[in-house]
Amino acid sequence: MGARSGRDARGPLAGLLIAALVSAACAGGGLAEPEGERPEPSRQTASPGPSATRTDSTTSVAEFQQDVADAQVIAERYWAAQFKASGQRFQPIKRITPYQRAGEVSCGGEALPRNNAVYCSRGDFIAYDVTWSVAAFRQIGDAFVFYLLGHEYAHGIQARLGINNSFTIQQELQADCMAGAYLGDSVRADALTLADGDLDEFRDGLAAVGDDPDQPWFAEGSHGTAEQRTQSFFRGYERSLSACDLG
Predict the structure, then answer these.
(1) Mean residue pLDDT across the chain
(2) What's the CA gap between 65 and 31, in Å, rounded?
(3) pLDDT at 134 over 50
(4) Domain residue extents for the chain
(5) Which of 118, 149, 155, 224 is 20 to 30 A from 72 (CA-CA)?
(6) What angle do CA 170, 191, 237 make, to 5 degrees?
């Protein structure tokens, strides 16, 4: 997946009330740790062998960092365009912070765990376990990085719009849809270029972060099964923000 400087993609945010950041919640949402028989990234940080290297050869930490930076730029341009189209001023998320150890970063006094990525409304930042993220990037591919950033950035947009669904799963599946819209619209606007296999990488990434099928949908922290997350993401990817129930 390649980032390009293209025209801004615009979508239907008009009419939505831009609210202040939600201050009651600590973490606006995150990605669950892969488990069970889902793709399990290796935790080693050295370059993987041939069996772990994707055909696009995206394996180095430098390439991962560049993809994170590109994804951030594209997300900020995209959401700035949506807010501008609705006559509102956009405030980018303040920072994106990698961490390596549990407890190294906290959100509202709560230590963030390993193997996760989170948007924290207290402080307005995204934090991610860099070891877990790089391992997933190496196993799944660079499209995972753009999805990961897009999903967490979507939680920041939900906070800015004052969206606070009754159940965690509603918040998470909506963020998946919004991430899909950001990516699909950016591809259609020539801000991103898909490489062969990128759509499969999105599917692999969503399969890796889906809930166990036995997880109750109403449980706190539920994100949705792999099937639900994939459906939500591609609904946004194909139909843009109008498919994401933003109001």
Answers:
(1) 81
(2) 19
(3) yes
(4) 21-33+54-243
(5) 224
(6) 30
